[in-house]
Amino acid sequence: YGSYVRGTERKVWINGTDGVTPLVGEVWPGETVFPDFTNPECTNWWVEECRLFYDTVPYDGIWIDMNEVASFVQGSTNGCEQNDLNYPPYTPGIVDRLMFSKTLCMDAVQNWGKHYDVHNLYGYSMGIATRRAIETVFPGKRSFMISRSTFMGSGKQTGHWLGDNAATWDHLKWAIPGMLEFNLFGIPYIGADICGFFDDTTEELCRRWMQVGAFYPFSRNHN
Fold it and tell me: Which InterPro entries match (predicted)?
């Protein structure tokens, strides 16, 4: 796989606790390594990969997903070491009561520091790298980018959508304050999946959602 080979040669992956060996997780294709977008060399690699992909499949914008960063295994395919980063003295009420549930080990090593300290900046750093790629692929042209994971200030680089919602009246209602809150975070280009992402919608729910969704800054039916 060319992207993996080129990335490995340039040492752009997030590493395990030893700081040398790429951490391996699992996402849709199977076993997966994760680009360290806090590494300037990774940004250069990403820009080139986006350009190469455009040469094969011309596109107009980039939709970034799974960049919390998400993984289908707990921490890594080899698990996580027993230490205070992976198992801190206090763990908040999160999924599975594990800091690395559905993501990477907290002692994984990135250019900006341990994953424990920069986990919430993964989408932010990927947005910066992707903006560089867009400016390279589309010089002097307006493009489009949305990201599922963002941080305060990400609005300078990318838009955002509220993630995987459901086809319910409650989710239609709660999308409105959700989008208003993201304006407070400096991300004005914001939307929700109109008619819901999970579950089957109804004609009445979808009709009403399309009506209110016409006023979303980012308006997309994704049921």
Answer: GH (IPR017853), Glyco_hydro_31_AS (IPR030458), Glyco_hydro_31_CS (IPR030459), Glyco_hydro_31_TIM (IPR000322)
Instruction: Give the architecture (CATH level 2) of 2-160.
Output: Alpha-Beta Barrel (3.20)
Reported as half-sphere exposure (CB side, CA atoms, 13 A), residue 93 has a value of: 0
Does residue 73 have a cis bond before it (omega within 30 degrees)? no
Give the separation between CA 217 and CA 25, rounded to whole angstroms: 34
pLDDT the model gives residue 45: 98
What's the pTM value of the predicted model, to 2 decimals? 0.94
In this prediction, residue 191 has a pLDDT band, given cuts at 50, 70 and 90, of very high
